[in-house]
Specification:
The protein folds into 2 domains: 87 residues, Winged helix-like DNA-binding domain superfamily/Winged helix DNA-binding domain (Arc Repressor Mutant, subunit A), CATH 1.10.10; 133 residues, Up-down Bundle (Four Helix Bundle (Hemerythrin (Met), subunit A)), CATH 1.20.120.530. It has 12 helices and 2 strands. It starts with a helix and ends with a helix.
Amino acid sequence: MSELSLKSSVRAAGAKALAVYLREEISTGRIREGVKLPAERDLSERFNTSRGAVRRVLQDLKERGLITQAVGSGTFVSPGAASALLPAEAPVGQPSLQTSPAELMEARLLIEPLLPRLITRNATPSDFARMSECIERSEAAVSIEEFEHWDGELHRALATATHNSFFVQVLELSNRVREQGEWGRLKRRSLTPERRAEYQAQHRAIVAALRDRDAAAAHEALTGHLRQIQANLFAA
């Protein structure tokens, strides 16, 4: 594949990832009605896609009635967008979210270690800035719930940095499972201050290896991180 073709492929994947991200954020209420979306330039940089592609994604959402746009003011989530989106976007045969934490960790150990190879090839400076933001916010979190939110956002940022829409969708599903009560109960029981400090150090090691474009080191660090989470969650 030529360099031009590769860049085109990455940008197309970025547009798909942006579309998935916005639909998911709106449908789950993480971006609530009336909230202003980031500027086109910011979305373009974060998802490594062209401004024109960003406009096409936004135009599609606008035509669905999910967002409104006002010249000079910006783009906002429309009233009732979440409820309007869910029925329209739910695919036939959508898998149940009655997934156990053990099943989730088993799947994460198979899937997430695949991310570093794509991240080291495709990630942009804005992707790394988002990872750093998630780490800093998780370290500043004052509650387990807040820490867990930003931990999930970091793993979402890793998926986004692949610029592969499949991985973005898989990690979005993972985060939805993490919002279930059983996961939260296990995390509250297992997350001691010492373990939290270890997780934070592991997060920084993973991102540092990715910044160095060292896929092997990032793979090892991420796999070790996930194995420790698994062991801590299900320790007797």
